[in-house]
Amino acid sequence: MSNTKSSKGLIGTGLIAAIAASLCCITPVLALIAGASGVAATFSWLEPARPYLIGITILVLGFAWYQKLKPRSKEEMECACEEDDLPAGKTGKPSFWQSKKFLAIITVFAGLMLAFPLYANVLYPGQNQQVMVVDQQNLQTVDFSISGMTCTGCEEHVKHEVNKLNGIVEVKASYKKGDAMVQFNSSKTSLSEIEKAINSTGYKVTNIKRR
Question: Among the three residues 81, 99, 122, which one is the final residue of a domain in this structure?
Answer without folding.
Answer: 122
